[in-house]
Amino acid sequence: MDFGNLINNLLNQMAFFHLGVGNYVMILVALVFLYLAIRKGFEPLLLIPIAFGMLLVNIYPEIMYSPEETSNGTGGLLWYFFQLDEWSILPSLIFLGVGAMTDFGPLIANPISFLMGAAAQLGIYSAYFLAILLGFSGKESAAISIIGGADGPTSLFLCSKLGQTQIMGPIAVAAYSYMALVPIIQPPFMKLLTTEKERKIKMEQLRPVSRLEKILFPIIVTIVVCLILPSTAPLVGMLMLGNLFRESGVVKQLADTASNALMYIVVILLGTSVGATTSAEAFLNVTTIKIVALGLTAFIFGTIGGVLLGKLLCKLTGGKINPLIGSAGVSAVPMAARVSQKVGAEADPTNFLLMHAMGPNVAGVIGTAVAAGTFMAIFGV
């Protein structure tokens, strides 16, 4: 082979000669996500791996090829990562880590938080019917609507269980992107629906929760929820197992592993594989635009539902509940709770709502899992 052929082969291997306009658009989107994560600090643990997976697949599409699509039959690296999403392994492990990291005490101390977590599921059911109106099938609509829970693992889990893997990429990217963009999306609606007086409401300190209560809570929730909706066992069961690791006090090593090393490994695998579903061919189409728009609508309606119920409870309790904590019911833990704290502190710097907002926040996680289980029951999965 002469030198000219060698140069020609080298040039043909370069990505410049194989990428389309769509690939460059997605590369630009990936760079914007990286900017938001690194420069602006918008949930870098999520956005950096997602954005980098997006960058990789649009430069080198074969990284997401299945074994059947590759010349040597081995498959691309991120394709294997994504199989763990489709098999619901990574979403369930994420729930294990979330449970091990989360204190359910605020929810136990203030059970009324369950109502705000339930009200925030308004976004899910609103998006379901909107998706039906836009021409999606029942299962597709259910998979899309769960984006409204701002819960990426549950979105992936339900999409897989309903067999809607053809739209899993846009759903996953929308869900995780909105989770990361909670600090941008929620505050305008929270302020629009509340008065300055309501945002300044200071809530009474939560009662102390005993160790026995914290140990019994995950066990009781698992029994009750899984008896009613057995299909939620992989998510609710792992969430509560992780929390039992935390609260039992006798398996500190398991709690530390689940909430640190294992959690971060799973985030890397899940984030990069989710980002890698956004090849230009799969992502830049009308269906994807509809899914992203429906996800945003669901998320907004979820925020509105939680805040409006918070306003109602504020009136019923004589001003003892700050409506802002209702927005945390969308379940993005602990991001949504931190947003409630931030908006409240803007109205009154001495106001501390974080622990109060954690109640609806945790309730929202359970509520979104229950909503997913309800859809699975409806469709006989």
From TrEMBL:
Q: What class of enzyme is it?
A: lyase
* Keyword check for Membrane: yes
Q: Which GO terms describe its molecular function?
A: oxaloacetate decarboxylase activity
Q: What is its EC number?
A: 4.1.1.112
Subcellular location field = Cell membrane
User: Which membrane topology describes this protein?
Assistant: Multi-pass membrane protein
- Among the Pfam families in the record, one is OAD_beta
> Where is the chain membrane-spanning?
15-38, 45-65, 77-100, 112-136, 171-194, 215-241, 261-284, 291-313, 362-380
InterPro entries attached to this UniProt entry:
OadB_MmdB
Q: Which UniProt keywords apply?
A: Cell membrane, Ion transport, Lyase, Membrane, Sodium, Sodium transport, Translocase, Transmembrane, Transmembrane helix, Transport
Q: Which NCBIfam families match?
A: Na_pump_decarbB
What is the name listed in the Swiss-Prot or TrEMBL entry for this protein?
Answer: Oxaloacetate decarboxylase beta subunit
Source species, please? Enterocloster citroniae
